[in-house]
Amino acid sequence: MKLSTFIGHHKRPRLGVVDLEQRAVLDLATAAETVHRRTDPNLVDMLSLIDAAAPGLARVEDLVREWPSEAAEDLDGVKLLAPVPIPRQLRDGMAFEEHVYNSRKQVEKRTGRPQKMPEVWYEHPVYYKCNRFNVVGHEADVIWPSYSEWMDYELEIACVIGKTGKDIFAETAPAHVFGFTIYDDFSARDAQFTEMRAGLGPAKGKDFDTGNVFGPWIVTPDELGDPHDLTMEVRVNGERWGGGSTKSMHYTFWDIIAWVSKDETLYAGEIIGSGTVGTGSAHELGKTLAPNDVIELEIEKIGVLRNRLIRPHA
């Protein structure tokens, strides 16, 4: 299933299931009221559905089979929000070796200082925690922060945690996943590189309103299949700039979940980004973005995430 958070004729966020063949989205709360003649508290938003676990998804599947037409809206007539508008936690990894290598080579080219792959990167997955309140969705404008002159996109896939756990084994990690979505981790590169020289960060290089973009929906594992064998592509103003495959992840999501949950509880409703696929950022290519550029990220079996970069402070 493709699970979305959208605003339609109710004028407030609703939980829905997207049917691309019909170009329609089923309002699940309205569908439950129509079919069962009662409200369902597990269908008010994505976090409630995640907390409802397998029984909640089973009720959704029943409603999709019924598909009451009075609960459906035209997909092209609704506004898609981030599938999880405020995640319980947001972390981003760095699982693609090619991206790390390419980025360091660009730094070497810019500074003249030799850059090697960090040995620790090969020891275990690494990640940082993001601002979970800076999240927006498909077609939202991304605001260029006033303190930056150098903006970049990052093409990633993200996994949404569906089952709370601690000290999770990689072999059992798939059972803790609710689904997958596309993640555009926008970055103010000049701020990022400056602050990280101090030994901390990223902070303002990543933390600005609208900087974390997810969407257009969450695809459940049963529909997606193997998350580590999906093609990825980024286009800027309709032109292909880069891409690759999740097959090239040095660390799988199962490795990352196992590491993150070591001696720490990983909660349902958290989101973990993969990190950027090789050539999935403009920085790697020696390219730069400009105000009003339209960035499209596409991942096989998920869809297209599209946003415009605007600069109101210029």
Summarize the structure.
22% of the residues lie in helices and 30% in strands.
Account of the 3D structure:
This protein is of the alpha+beta class. The chain has two domains: 2-80, no CATH class; 89-310, Alpha-Beta Complex (Fumarylacetoacetate hydrolase, domain 2), CATH 3.90.850.10. It is 22% helix and 30% strand. The protein has seven helices and 19 strands. The protein has helices spanning 28-36, 46-66, 97-111, 189-196, 221-224, 253-260, 282-285; strands spanning 2-7, 13-19, 24-27, 72-74, 79-80, 89-93, 127-129, 135-136, 141-143, 151-152, 155-161, 177-185, 187-188, 212-219, 231-236, 239-245, 270-273, 294-299, 303-310. Strands 1, 2, 3, 4, 5, 6, 7, 8, 11, 12, 14 and 17 form a twelve-stranded mixed β-sheet that branches. It is globular and about 70 Å long. The model has no long low-confidence stretch (mean pLDDT 97).
Number of DSSP strand runs: 19
**Which architecture of the largest domain does the CATH hierarchy give at level 2?**
Alpha-Beta Complex
Low-confidence stretches: none
Return the structural class.
alpha+beta
Helical fraction: 10-25%
Which CATH first-tier class of the largest domain would you pick? Alpha Beta
The main pleated sheet reads as: 12 strands, mixed
Overall mean confidence score, pLDDT: 97
Kindly provide the radius of gyration, computed on alpha-carbon positions and rounded to a whole number of angstroms.
19 Å
The N- to C-terminal Cα distance equals: 42 Å
Number of domains: 2
Proportion of strand residues: 25-35%
Backbone shape: globular
- At the fourth level of CATH, the homologous superfamily of the largest domain is Fumarylacetoacetase-like, C-terminal domain
Number of helical segments with 4 or more residues: 7
One letter per element, helices H and strands E, the order comes to EEEHHEEEHEEEEEEEHEHEEHEHEE
CATH topology of the largest domain: Fumarylacetoacetate hydrolase, domain 2
